[in-house]
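Appendix B, example 12.
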Amino acid sequence: MKPNQIQDILDHPHFKELVHKKRVLSWTLATLMWVIYFGYILLVTFEPEWLHQSLSGGVTTVGIPMGIFVILSAFILCGIYVWRANGKLDALNKLLRDEVQL
């Protein structure tokens, strides 16, 4: 790839839009995951009695489904990223590649 092609890509409005959308998406999902994870950790730290409460009088406590939710939310947020990247971001990437003729 020639240096002028690289600069053409960096200056292209679709590239700037692609970078912006990817950055917003990744920071939004990362922030959401941090809130979920550290929220759970703060509950474990400051409200362990609440997490030790039984759900239905058995051995399953409130903390177990909440912990499972933290793990599943990571998979769900990853799936959202892949779904969004394969939909909007890949289409924008293809449009950019077609316009700069790579």
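The chain has a mean pLDDT of 92. Residues 14 and 96 are 6 Å apart (CA to CA).
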